[in-house]
Design a protein that fits this description.
Order of helices and strands: HEEEHEHEEHE
Distance between the termini: 49 Å
Number of strands: 7
Low-confidence stretches: 1-31
Helix content: 10-25%
Shape: globular
Mean pLDDT: 82
Strand content: 15-25%
Number of helices: 4
Length: 191
């Protein structure tokens, strides 16, 4: 009968709970997992970069940010409290994968006042693959967006960032609304 509900079958309920606990399913489609950032300056890295959201921690962007600072975290691995909090506060912080969990890095970025954290692959040759960032076994909650950036993109960006002079970015951007003549992807990246 239409409109009547019956309890879910035990096997369906088990599948959902298993999927949620193991894979962190939280209702996002695959398309929602990718975000784009436009670097406006410095001009040597002024391209549009594709990033992947964390699988099961962090939040989505609630705003589109224009002309926001992108800064390198100190230490760059983000495994300890960030020492450049004055630069990180109110900015996007770039950290590098490795040595501790993604949640630890994201928590340290959030504690320093970052609006979001971008974690670049530590494999500088990676210009194609995205790592799926998953939570650790702690109970820490991350309340900022956490994004993964391919290694070659992260390496190029970090090479041009001065510890005291940030890059200027727009994030997240809708690439379908950018005129083709303004859409510049990094020449080293496979799209």
């Amino acid at each position: 009968m239409f409109g009547c509900s019956r309890p879910p079958s035990p096997s369906l309920l088990f599948f959902f709970l298993f999927t949620k606990s193991v894979y962190g399913y939280h209702g996002f489609s695959t398309a929602d997992r990718y975000h784009y950032m436009e670097v406006l300056s410095p001009t040597d890295i002024a391209y549009v970069y594709k990033m992947r959201s964390a699988e099961d921690f962090g939040v989505t962007f609630s705003n589109t940010y224009r002309e926001l600072n992108l800064v390198l975290g100190q230490p760059y691995n983000g495994c300890k409290a960030l020492t450049n909090k004055c630069m990180v506060e109110g900015a996007i912080v770039l950290l590098e994968k490795g040595e501790c969990t993604f949640v630890t890095k994201s928590t340290n970025a959030e504690n320093a006042g970052a609006i979001a954290v971008i974690i670049a692959d530590d494999n500088y040759e990676n210009s194609e693959e995205y790592i799926i960032m998953i939570r650790d076994f702690s109970n820490r909650i991350v309340n900022i967006p956490a994004l993964f950036l391919r290694g070659k993109d992260g390496w190029k960006i970090s090479a041009y960032l001065d510890p005291f002079k940030p890059a200027i970015v727009n994030i997240p951007i809708n690439i379908t609304r950018i005129p083709l003549e303004r859409m510049h992807f990094p020449p080293w990246t496979v799209w």
